[in-house]
Design a protein that fits this description.
single chain, alpha/beta, Cobalt-precorrin-4 Transmethylase, domain 1, five-stranded parallel sheet, five-stranded mixed sheet, 11 helices
Length: about 280
């Protein structure tokens, strides 16, 4: 008799506080045939804390093309497999999403085991609108792709959520302010951990606050969507040079102003810059 395929469990793990691990999560990890972990060293510490002795295999960005099909083969052979991220829900900004796609294509059952998630934790504590939101994760590393994504998000009226590393935080806050205007925002740092901090303010205020001290920890950024009252001078003028001049008069650098005007008018930055040069001749 052919054996029934196993189940792929997407098991959320704590994002900091071990008390947030669910009873179900512990049980699933104990009962699985194997645990696929993004970082086996970090996961091994978690398993040790909860007395879980299930075998571990590495499943991460650099080996997913090989390890993924191997895990699907085990699932088709009848094994139940639990996949975990470094922290939080697997499949969010990690290679777990690729394994899910393979499992769905193979007809394998996929079951979520919910738990902690940094994006939602930061959102509900931000004080911003939670009715409709956009999760953007980590911004692209390439500057052109990053600017293109921010330009596409600038006109959305929805709250936006981003992840960012400490060494990129202040630069990202500056880019968000340039692309979106000086909107209300909140930053969740080290959520659920001992030094948890939620800082609220305008994007430029947050940029200046974290520029004045070395950012440390893991950061989740929540930014308000575009509202009618947020319309910056660039939005009320079809003249890019005039819009840039208005933003500079309001305190922005010329570079920031050109970037914001280009995003709001949907024009290339080079075109806006040439318009500014033409005005000053």
């Amino acid at each position: 008799m052919e054996k029934k395929p196993g189940t792929l469990y997407l098991c959320a793990t704590p994002i900091g506080n071990l008390e947030d691990f669910t009873f179900r999560g512990v049980r699933v990890l104990k009962e699985a045939a194997v645990i696929a972990a993004e970082d086996t060293r970090r996961t091994r510490k978690l398993l040790s804390h909860f007395g879980i002795h299930t075998p571990l295999v590495s499943y991460r960005e650099h080996n997913k093309s090989v390890r993924g099909p191997e895990l699907i083969a085990r699932l088709l052979a009848g094994d139940d497999i639990a996949v975990v991220s470094d922290a939080g829900l697997p499949g969010i900004s990690d290679p777990g999403a690729d394994l899910v796609r393979l499992a769905v294509a193979a007809g394998v059952a996929v079951t979520p085991v919910p738990g902690p998630n940094a994006a939602l934790a930061a959102l509900v504590a931000s004080g911003l609108d939670t009715a409709v939101f956009v999760f953007a994760g980590f911004l692209p590393r390439a500057a052109k792709r990053r600017r293109s994504l921010l330009a596409s998000l600038a006109a959305l009226p929805y709250t936006m959520i981003f992840y960012e590393s400490p060494h990129r935080l202040t630069a990202t806050l500056a880019e968000l302010a340039a692309a979106f205007g000086d909107r209300p925002a909140a930053i969740g740092r080290e959520l659920t951990k001992k030094f948890e901090e939620i800082v609220r303010g305008r994007l430029t205020d947050l940029r200046d606050a974290f520029a004045a001290r070395e950012p440390r920890g893991e950061f989740t950024l929540v930014v308000a969507g575009k509202q009618a009252a947020d319309a910056a001078p660039a939005a009320v003028s079809a003249d890019p040079a005039a819009a840039v001049a208005a933003l500079v008069a309001a305190g922005k650098t010329k570079k920031e102003a050109v970037r914001q005007v280009a995003a709001e008018l949907g024009r290339p930055r080079r075109e806006v810059y040439q318009a500014v040069l033409g005005r000053t001749k």
